[in-house]
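SAMPLE LOG
Freezer: B-3
Tube label: C17
Construct: single chain, 436 aa
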Amino acid sequence: MVKVKNKKTVFSWMLYDFGNSAFATVIMAAVLPIFYSNVAAANLDDTVATSYWGYSQSIAVLIVAILAPFLGAISDFSAAKKKFLQFFAFMGIIASILLAFVGEGDYLFASLLVIVGTIGFSSANIFYDAFLPEIAAEEDIDKISSSGFAFGYIGGGILLAIDILMILKYDMFGIPNSTVASQISFASVGVWWFIFSLPLLKNIREEKRVSQKRDKSYIKIGYTRVTTTFKELRQYKQLLIFLLAFWMYNDGISTIIKMATIYGTEIGLAQNSLIVALLITQFVGIPFTFFFGWLANKISAKKALTISLYIYVGIVILGYFMTTATHFYLLAICVGFVQGGAQALSRSIYGRMVPANRHAEFFGFYGISSKFAAIFGPFLFGLVGQLTGSSRLGIMSLVIFFIIGITLLRFVNIEKGVADARRNTNMEEKIEIKPN
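STRUCTURE (predicted):
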């Protein structure tokens, strides 16, 4: 790992999370799901609208899952993580702004923009995450990863609070109604994301690499490196086990994030209650994300992560019985306790076991674990809801994802995984400097 020499770079890296998290809070979790159900899909049955939202999420993550390992491999070969990050960030930014033009009955247009925006958001995060091992020393990686997520909670929470005020008190802003206020909030996400991306795009520098001559197309290079990495994964046994564990429990986490609000809408909770609850999650998450970074240093990242997953099991079970706004508030607080910590520690644990000079390639596989797996949660949620006429059984089905993830995580030996990464990195470096 590279020691942190430039605090400005680390701060710029965190500011990107401050900016792009508005997409996760306003568009993925809070405002758009309600807008989709009440406005874009106003002519559809409530359960059908919930299902279509779930299908839109599944399509988006399927595309990201297919692209992720190829993008990572190509960017590592070309040392172009920064360029790829900028391209996909701008894709998400533009899609966010265009959501302002979605009106009543435009659920297909809304779904298309959600898919494009999610592809941009998720793909950019692959390259953003891949910079973590380059800017953080090994002993600081949990702290910096957790701080990045905490910044995300702050930035996403601030814009969400502003947008909520604008939606609830639209006349105070000179806006004709809450629908227009919601549309403006989508555009605000794109602007916010763009502004706080600028420091990272200006200050981040990639590690210097041994230049590689390109004698074939990037598509062929990506395909070759991906297939090679698949074959080499047996040399990273601990990393592979962790990926499988992450694949499972992150499916549950991402489904809760994406489906909670529209689920609450379906069972009859008021829009104001749903948005306020998600705002609570944001601000509860700030101190507890820092707390899990501290806890990881005290009892180990693996143990702290496991604790957060057990709490998620309780959240899912309680969600099945949720009927009132008070219940939703309590669940929002509980999610705030663990959401940022679980995601931050997952990223830092994985970052420890990634071989040097192949960060984007292996974070592409991290992306495929988080995105490809996340296809099944929303799809199962939507399918069960459509078949049974209620989404309660759908949310209960998420328990299995957490239980399997916790079980697999028990078999991960992080120290051994770090040793495997170093050994294989040293072998690759010897091969590279071997004279012809």
